[in-house]
Amino acid sequence: MSAKMNTVQMNAFLAQVSQAHPQEFIVMVVDGASSHKAKDLVIPANLRLIPLPGYSPELNPQEHIWDEVREKAFPNLVLDQMTQVVERLERDLRALAADAQRVRSITAWPWIVSLNLKAK
Fold this sequence. Notes:
mainly alpha; 2 strands
């Protein structure tokens, strides 16, 4: 199974996030990937994308989420089959997504929390 990230996939992802949280205003920090800034990108009304400066992975909260997943889901672990890796990753990502406080503790840095955003 191979999936490519492109504008079509990013639009589908943004729509899915928007539909899953229709009553919330979502701030999504994105890096400089072409799919994050394409001219055909459709940003739902309840989302705002905040671009990071170029070459700054240390500022990207997503990088810290992946560190958390690697450390907690796969500590000193070798799996024999890719299906096992995918199953474990899906299980742990669902658990992480269900724990808003844990996600907040990893990603709610002062510079993010202090953003003054105005919904359109």
